Amino acid sequence: MKRKVIFLFMLALTGLVAYAQQSLWGGQNIVSPEIHPDNTVTFRFYAPKAVKVQVSGDFLPSQKVDTPFGKADVPGAADLKEGKDGVWEYTTPEPLPSELYNYSFLVDGLKVTDPNNIYVSRDVASVFNIFIIKGNPGDLYSVNKVAHGTVSKRWYHSDALGYDRRLTVYTPAGYETNGKRYPVLYLLHGMGGDEEAWVTLGRAVQILDNLIAQGKAKPMIVVMPNGNVDQEAAPGESSLGLYKPTMQLPRTMEGTMETTFPEIIKFVEKNYRVEKKKSARAIAGLSMGGFHSMHISKAYPDMFDYIGLFSAAILPNKEVESPIYADLEGKLKTQFAKAPKLYWIAIGKTDFLYKANQEYREMLDKNHYPYVYRETDGGHIWRNWRIYLSEFVPQLFQ
Amino acid sequence: MKRKVIFLFMLALTGLVAYAQQSLWGGQNIVSPEIHPDNTVTFRFYAPKAVKVQVSGDFLPSQKVDTPFGKADVPGAADLKEGKDGVWEYTTPEPLPSELYNYSFLVDGLKVTDPNNIYVSRDVASVFNIFIIKGNPGDLYSVNKVAHGTVSKRWYHSDALGYDRRLTVYTPAGYETNGKRYPVLYLLHGMGGDEEAWVTLGRAVQILDNLIAQGKAKPMIVVMPNGNVDQEAAPGESSLGLYKPTMQLPRTMEGTMETTFPEIIKFVEKNYRVEKKKSARAIAGLSMGGFHSMHISKAYPDMFDYIGLFSAAILPNKEVESPIYADLEGKLKTQFAKAPKLYWIAIGKTDFLYKANQEYREMLDKNHYPYVYRETDGGHIWRNWRIYLSEFVPQLFQ
């Protein structure tokens, strides 16, 4: 009786989708990815009728492809070999260094997610699988047995934009009960991202929980707003319904995010127990969010003592006229005259924004404006932004 | 320049995974599912090398399959037809009634998610796509332009279990600022579920936001704990890392969830502005969570005035010895002598637990214990549990 009941439970649940084809005693009871003790990884895919199965992911050397704008790097692909019962397999020849990796399978050229791995992330309109190799930095991106902060999805009303908007708020462990006031990091996403990006792709919650538990970072609140002023919320979380997202949004780097940003600070300072002073406020962002952080911090030079530009999209656009972008050098002069405690610039050597960042640094150098510069390998990728967050956060509010 | 920059942005983002194969100008720029104005739906899948492509989902008539325990219902499948450029297509012959549906594709027998639909849900170890047809009840499961509550993922310490555990808390719009005290619904998941299930598969946040905005439900806090006492948190959110989940957990329906439940109430009543009285507490759950709700509510007969058993797994297990399950009739006598305001039982006609619920109701009838009974079509499925939540919540705290 008991076995039958459990079976029927499983059937009722798994039977929801295509039970007959991915049955409980069928081909999908395989482990993929399997991370071996030596950190080599085996990927498996059940596809008895396939002619070619590949795995593509950022753990493989990248390859060059032709694009309308020249050659570009994309993740490499490795062939799986067909074994018994239609299960294809590939094991990495070398152990993988500790990291959070992503991958997909290519079955006769068709990109699919791994049906044996429920852990998926979305970037704009792509969904892919993830896995973590333990060690450093993988452990920093993992949930550990430490005190955990609270993650809230909350809505605020924007008078300037005329609608309610969603943001993600991380409050550190103990916030709810200890009565203390906390400093705040405003953490901004890039183009195509939203208020979910730093939590999902960026592992910001795990990074903060772990750094705080290790005593390497001050307990702080992290506010992750939606930087697309034409969005109420992330795709699927707004009144637009379940639409297909694109990179193309009407207003992204044209001044509105920057001019309406004080509303977000006002909301946070009214609704959370925070320290309301420059030395307890930080702003950082990746790509478009780095561009926003640069312009917001200089537009409100008394607001932030800590500024982080992660692979910042420092791209003056002459088509855009916004007072926020006018008189860059004059505003920077004011900002640096007020001596922010940390102006941190980080970028990867192969980032397509490297040159734009180099020119910006040359301008800062010419004016003797102090900043800290961090250069890593790699390009315009989340792997770098997780590293930058992990290195930036310990420097805050000290 | 600008076009190139946007292109490079897109490349940097989408290029993370298998750019070359699902390129920006390739075959994946198709719309799927496409919901037409008359509510017929077209599914599209790019697979130039496939021999057979099907869509399987709960919008199709179910089909019988053989299992080791006899015939069982599983979702049906429909054939797509190959069109030009390798894009396969299927359009439903009839408009679909308003509902939240799920589906997957079957490509030469291989179950895959739709690469053109980023909206996925997970049930135990299966990931599948979802879409919503507007109307009733689809609009109730959708984000609308109404005041939104806050959803928090928070951790509490269980002294009884010896570790920190995660729960989901919905606080209604206005909670943070209006100083009022609120009633609380404790909402429990089924076997294989966790503290995420009612939010993802159950659309509880949308249902609550919408019913409260329409004036059909009292503003209330909804607490969604993890009912698997051996789990800190949902898969991927605990220190176990990114493992493959199964239905099989050591302790599920053996008394520990019920005996440790007062810890959760204590945590909530200490940490949230709630009304601390029987008439302001409700408990409800689906399947295993209905079983938990039944036993918790009778174990603590002064605690809950509102009890909801949704497709409850009323399955006495003679192998389990827990004081919580002893003397069922005596405890029910005490519970009903204290006259709870609502004892609500709901189940689908074809649920495999129908008979167990019928026997339970006969026992209640025999003892003249009042309850409200709701019978729907269908079986042990989320479609029913969303309906039950939508009907239960308006009856609470009136």
Précis, in short:
2 copies of one chain form a homodimer. In chain A, 23% of the residues lie in helices and 27% in strands.
SSE blueprint and pairings:
Two copies of one chain form a homodimer.
Chain A: H1 2-14, E1 34-35, E2 41-46, E3 53-57, E4 63-67, E5 70-74, E6 77-79, E7 81-82, E8 87-91, E9 99-107, E10 110-112, E11 120-123, E12 126-133, E13 150-158, E14 163-171, H2 175-178, E15 184-188, H3 197-200, H4 204-213, E16 221-224, H5 256-271, E17 281-286, H6 288-299, E18 306-310, H7 328-337, E19 342-348, H8 354-366, E20 372-376, H9 382-392
Parallel strand pairs in A: 15-16, 15-17, 17-18, 18-19, 19-20
Antiparallel strand pairs in A: 1-2, 2-8, 3-6, 3-9, 4-5, 7-8, 9-10, 9-12, 11-12, 13-14, 14-16
Notes on the structure:
Two copies of one chain form a homodimer. Chain A is an alpha+beta fold and 398 residues long. The first copy, chain A, folds into two domains: 31-134, Immunoglobulin-like (Sandwich), CATH 2.60.40; 150-395, Alpha/Beta hydrolase fold, catalytic domain (Rossmann fold), CATH 3.40.50.1820. Chain A is built from nine helices and 20 strands. Chain A has helices spanning 2-14, 175-178, 197-200, 204-213, 256-271, 288-299, 328-337, 354-366, 382-392; strands spanning 34-35, 41-46, 53-57, 63-67, 70-74, 77-79, 81-82, 87-91, 99-107, 110-112, 120-123, 126-133, 150-158, 163-171, 184-188, 221-224, 281-286, 306-310, 342-348, 372-376. The first copy, chain A, has an eight-stranded mixed sheet, sandwiched between helices. In chain A, strands 3, 6, 9, 10, 11 and 12 form a six-stranded antiparallel sheet that branches. The first copy, chain A, is globular and about 70 Å long. Residues 13-27 of chain A have low confidence and may be disordered. Chains A and B meet through helix 1, strand 4, strand 5, strand 9 and strand 10 of A and helix 1, strand 4, strand 5, strand 9 and strand 10 of B.
